[in-house]
Description:
Blueprint: H1 24-34, H2 41-54, H3 64-68, H4 70-80, H5 85-105
Helix pairs in contact: 1-5, 2-5
Amino acid sequence: MYQKDAEVxxxxxxxxxxxxxxxxxWQMLVERVRRLPENDVDxxxxxxxxxxxxxxxxxxxxxxxxxxxxxxxxxQTVIRFKGTDDELIQMWDTARIDVLTxxxxxxxxxxx
Length: 112
């Protein structure tokens, strides 16, 4: 049986469910991003951040993660992140630069 909450990549509809999982900096980012249209660079960067953190690219329809659903997986991913909110926000900043670079050039920058 397939979970109705499982999608191929991180669904933007899940953003609001992540708000209260961390501190004030994270909450402010989520609050800002969730109010924007899905095609906004900041929202796309948030989606890329969550795809990277949660390993969405390796998720399969019959995997344990997919069976639990994207909302559960994303919440668990944010809760289990061992770094600080500042580190998460920095990762979002990096994802934002990556999205902007992709839009301008069609290539992702290499991070070393």
